[in-house]
Amino acid sequence: MAGQDKRCLPLMPACNGEHGGKKARHQALVPVVKQEPRQEAEEEEWEEGELTSHGGSPGAAEALVGAAPAPAPPQIDVRMDMALLHCQACFLPLKPRVFKCEAGHVVCGYCRGAHGEACGRADTHCPELDAVVGGTKVPCAYRDFGCDRFLVYHGAAEHKRACPWMPCSCPQPGCAFLGPPAALLDHCSAEHSRPIIQVRYGRPWTLSLPLAQRWHVVVGQEDRSVFLVSLADLGVAATAVSLLCVRSDGAVALPAAPHFWCKLSVEHPRGDKDEMIMMASAVSSSPLSAGLPVPGQGMFLAVPHLLMSGDVLAISVRIDQLQPPPPASTAVAGGAPAPAAPAHARTTTRRLQ
């Protein structure tokens, strides 16, 4: 068990190779937030929206009134036929600009030309419908799991693919759990008696994983991101080890979503560094709706059995949190090249000597 992070890892079958930490030393590393005393002579504060005549001019009062935010327009919940919000040519959700043909069919800008050839000219722009399809909002499909956002109807499907509240499944075969990644931690601990391995980013951690348990949950202490380390037989002489982030497949497309790299390495039980294998690659994302990763697919580390000690796999795991890259349009407009991956973020393998 790691010395410096012992208080954060009550059930973690892992160590980071550090020993001999003292309690006094640990307390010295805890940051102290000191609150500054309030000054006695503070400037007089006025309540928001208060108008005063104490030294204030009528013009100042009018400025305060003019600076008040405009009230939000009233909104209502309605039910309507979904077909009214879909293009009558491609049957996809309408997006501004919306057009209408001579026969009265409402089509999107993409289908305007093709539909005009089949059913008269579709060159009548409908700004009123632009306002409707651009202002019609629906709740997120994962509202029951915690997402409280309302999306413009034609963008709801795109949000659904990347929603951080997309429910994930339990990695245990046959388990019917369905919920957000944060709830998966409590579920695995309470229902399957699995320890939650807590790690910090940017440093290696040695995990001792029983081969009898085919999956292990890892959580990043900095942002509580959930990862899954899975083990699977790769023939009769090796075990495939893979690591993924438990979240929606499209989460990496969100502007503020972090990207992760991982480095997995296994040394010979005798500590001979000439007999080791390693892999470094990007961390993929999955809600586990299809279960555990299929052995031999995607990125994985093939560990020969001669590098294992009995029924336990000792593996070094390092997870790095990267800042999300800038949008492609911004990079092209600025002329700046895309950010390069860190030096350690390359897929490499050292074969046994």
TrEMBL record:
Chain intervals with Acidic residues compositional bias: 41-50
One Pfam family recorded for the sequence: Sina_ZnF
Residues of the region (Disordered) are 18-59, 326-353
The UniProt entry, under InterPro entries, shows: SINL_plant, Znf_RING/FYVE/PHD, Znf_SIAH
Spans traversing the lipid bilayer: none
> Where in the numbering of this chain does the SIAH-type domain appear?
135-193
| GO MF terms, alphabetically ordered | zinc ion binding
Gene3D superfamilies assigned? Zinc/RING finger domain, C3HC4 (zinc finger)
Question: Which keywords belong to this entry?
Answer: Metal-binding, Zinc, Zinc-finger
Regions of biased composition (Low complexity) lie at 329-345
Per the entry, what this protein does is: E3 ubiquitin-protein ligase that mediates ubiquitination and subsequent proteasomal degradation of target proteins. E3 ubiquitin ligases accept ubiquitin from an E2 ubiquitin-conjugating enzyme in the form of a thioester and then directly transfers the ubiquitin to targeted substrates. It probably triggers the ubiquitin-mediated degradation of different substrates.
The record's PANTHER family line, in alphabetical order, gives: E3 UBIQUITIN-PROTEIN LIGASE SINA-LIKE 4 (PTHR46632), RING-TYPE E3 UBIQUITIN TRANSFERASE (PTHR46632:SF9)
From the Swiss-Prot or TrEMBL record, give the protein name.
SIAH-type domain-containing protein
The protein's organism comes out as Triticum aestivum (Wheat)
Q: Upper taxonomic classification of the species?
A: Eukaryota, Viridiplantae, Streptophyta, Embryophyta, Tracheophyta
